[in-house]
């Protein structure tokens, strides 16, 4: 569970074109991490445009953490990483890749482009529960995020 001394909820942006994966994460996150507000987007190109537009607004949406699939239509997760890491408004946001690919060249490229972690998509619900508990432990309980 999130540190009770932290008064603000965490805003997490999930970018995944798989509607079923996103719905499962959304349902589990609501139960496991009730102090997290999850925003789900399925179109990576639209996400880039929206984030860049909102970054110019004083009260625009800025996620505390980004979870992103790599293989998406229109803009790959690699392109999203490259673009967001080159923008000062997003450099400090932890960006976690969530992929079903274990190809070493993709893992290496994701880290080269600024991913903070490369997480394998679980194959069952218990795996997703463990993944979310790990994200909670590593990013919300013990890490201090730039806000």
Automatic annotation (TrEMBL):
Q: Which UniProt keywords apply?
A: Phosphoprotein
Listed SMART domains: REC (SM00448)
Q: Which domain of life is it from?
A: Bacteria
Q: What is this protein called?
A: Response regulator containing a CheY-like receiver domain and a GGDEF domain protein
Q: Which organism is it from?
A: Deinococcus peraridilitoris (strain DSM 19664 / LMG 22246 / CIP 109416 / KR-200)
Pfam families reported in the protein's UniProt record:
Response_reg
* Statement: the UniProt record of this protein carries the keyword Transit peptide: no
GO BP terms: phosphorelay signal transduction system
Q: Which residues carry this modification: 4-aspartylphosphate?
A: 69
């Amino acid at each position: 569970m999130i540190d009770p001394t932290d008064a603000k909820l965490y805003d997490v942006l999930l970018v995944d074109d798989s509607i079923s994966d996103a719905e499962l994460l959304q349902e589990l996150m609501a139960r496991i991490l009730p102090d997290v507000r999850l925003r789900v987007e399925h179109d990576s190109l639209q996400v880039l445009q929206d984030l860049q537009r909102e970054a110019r607004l004083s009260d625009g949406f800025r996620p505390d953490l980004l979870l992103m699939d790599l293989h998406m239509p229109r803009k790959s997760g690699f392109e999203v990483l490259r673009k967001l890491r080159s923008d000062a408004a997003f450099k400090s946001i932890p960006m976690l890749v969530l992929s079903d690919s274990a190809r070493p060249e993709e893992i290496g490229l994701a880290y080269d482009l600024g991913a903070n972690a490369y997480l394998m998509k679980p194959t069952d619900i218990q795996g997703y529960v463990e993944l979310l508990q790990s994200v909670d432990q590593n990013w919300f309980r013990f890490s201090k995020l730039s806000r």
